[in-house]
Amino acid sequence: MAWERITELGTQVNVASGNLSPEKTTTFYNPKMCKNRMLILCALTAVVRERGREKVEKRIQKRMRCLDAFGATGITGLQWQLHHHDDVEVTVSDINPESVRNMRRNCILNNLLAEDNLSDGKRLEQSNEMMKEEREDVDRLHRGGTGVVVIRINESMNKEVAETHCEKVKDQSDDGKNEKISNVATSSETPFSDNDSSRNDGTVTLVCCDANLLMRQRFFDFIFLDPYGCATPFMDSAFSNISNNGILAITSTDTASLYGKCPQVTLRNYGGQVAKCEYLKELAGRLVVAAAVRAAARCNKGLEVLLCVALEHFVLVILRVRRGSGQADRSVQEVQHVLHCRVCGQRKFVPSTLTVPNSMYDHLSCTCHKSAPCTAMLLGPVWSGSIFDAGFIDRMAHAGVELRLSKKDLQLLHTLLEEATCSGPKSLQMNASLPETKAHQTTMEAGQKRGRLVDANDLSNTHDKRRRCDENQGQPAFYFSLPQHSIKNMDKPRIKTFIECLRMAGHRASRTHFDPEGVRTNAALANFKAVLQDASTPTMK
């Protein structure tokens, strides 16, 4: 069997070549989920910085207990340990014993100790002799099978460093053996040397166990759920023992059900319904949050949504857990249906009530139902609250700079931050664009606001009454697709130009990562179309 050595964000792992799916290999690695792991690392970095300030104030010495519940190769947990070894206690689990053995080899590859709970939970005493034997084992695996050594370096090292690393391996392989070496290199960080046996960045706990069982047995402050498919079977266990103010990150890869291609599976797994519409990706993210809210409420816990991301291959939500039945009740009240007009695209959240309304169409401002019957759909129930925390995403963006991420990754974080703030007119944007350091200083001086830290967006509330009203209304829900509302015989404006037109008209507007042609705004559909009409130009024949 040929093995590939992959480097991502400064972390090396060995995986079997041709790892197409978890069913076909025990060392499954998905390169398409690189952005997902990047976002998780930035989120953990933001939380570590946040906890660091609390440690200074409260003189707390306890490290964060972090769990990667579906380790596979262990690359996510190893990234956490390498970047935050003084602040975290990392546990990586997998139900497959062979995956755990490979994770142990990957720990040694990155000069980490492995506390192996594979059988009796006893700590492995890794002496120098044992470390040497394990390194030889890793070397044999790396050179075994077909004799092909493949080094793939993913957006984590610059090209010069990567070529030097490949030449080093090539010199080792030319010693009496005819082996092929291929490399793919793009990135900005130096890999860890295999020969640096003196380096030790900490200990990673490896557990061969069912994720549900592990989460019910131990307490954690940060949990990452990334199963192959739907994550709802693991939500109850995740909320059972997670700490107050703990972070739960959920990645769902069952996009067929989330995007409405299998409606019966959507209803079975998430207890809601979705349909193809212009804001489908955001609807999918809110559906996952709604399922998490119901699971948390059964454990008398409420949720705050810090981030919701839906890219091509996955949906990621990052949640902060608040303990208490009152918090749970408030979160459950935010789970509502969406009334969607299939004719004009108008949408409105409909709260659950005991009484039957005279007409559901009264919630919509359009009159499409008067000209044709059954023009609206009742979607959800989904989360109706905010899906972004601007202060948290701001800290993630600063973490991305510290981690020296690629320009594309930094641009994604910038887009998320812009979407979270969703700025208004020019006079309001100046208040919203306070430097992060000054904002955090003001936050610490302001102290607590209703039990949570005041984020950067709330700082301008004391300076601008109009901004305070906008913040009380919350972030604009959903977005409009510009091509879908384009006017016949008119050329639509550029996205950037149109956003400025909306802001000049007194509305909040921004790009959205959900759709490159989408605009998030608090403008009503009629106002949106009116501004689009003015900003469009006649088509030249």
UniProtKB/TrEMBL annotation:
Q: Name one GO cellular component term.
A: nucleus
Coiled coil, from the record = none
**Enzyme Commission no:** 2.1.1.216
> Which reactions does this protein catalyse?
guanosine(26) in tRNA + 2 S-adenosyl-L-methionine = N(2)-dimethylguanosine(26) in tRNA + 2 S-adenosyl-L-homocysteine + 2 H(+)
Q: Which UniProt keywords apply?
A: Isopeptide bond, Metal-binding, Methyltransferase, Nucleus, Phosphoprotein, RNA-binding, S-adenosyl-L-methionine, Transferase, tRNA processing, tRNA-binding, Ubl conjugation, Zinc, Zinc-finger
Lineage top rank: taxon? Eukaryota
Spans of biased composition, class Basic and acidic residues?
162-180
Q: Please list the GO terms describing molecular function.
A: tRNA (guanine(26)-N2)-dimethyltransferase activity; tRNA binding; zinc ion binding
Compartment list: Nucleus, Nucleolus
Q: Does the keyword Cell inner membrane apply?
A: no
Q: Which InterPro entries does the record associate with it?
A: SAM-dependent_MTases_sf (IPR029063), Trm1 (IPR002905), tRNA_met_Trm1_C (IPR042296)
- A Gene Ontology BP annotation from the UniProt entry: tRNA N2-guanine methylation
Q: Which residue ranges are recorded for the region named Disordered?
A: 162-198
Q: Where is the composition biased (Polar residues)?
A: 181-198
Q: Which family does it belong to?
A: Belongs to the class I-like SAM-binding methyltransferase superfamily. Trm1 family.
> Can you name this protein?
tRNA (guanine(26)-N(2))-dimethyltransferase
List the source organism. Answer: Strongylocentrotus purpuratus (Purple sea urchin)
The organism that produces this protein has a lineage beginning with:
Eukaryota, Metazoa, Echinodermata, Eleutherozoa, Echinozoa
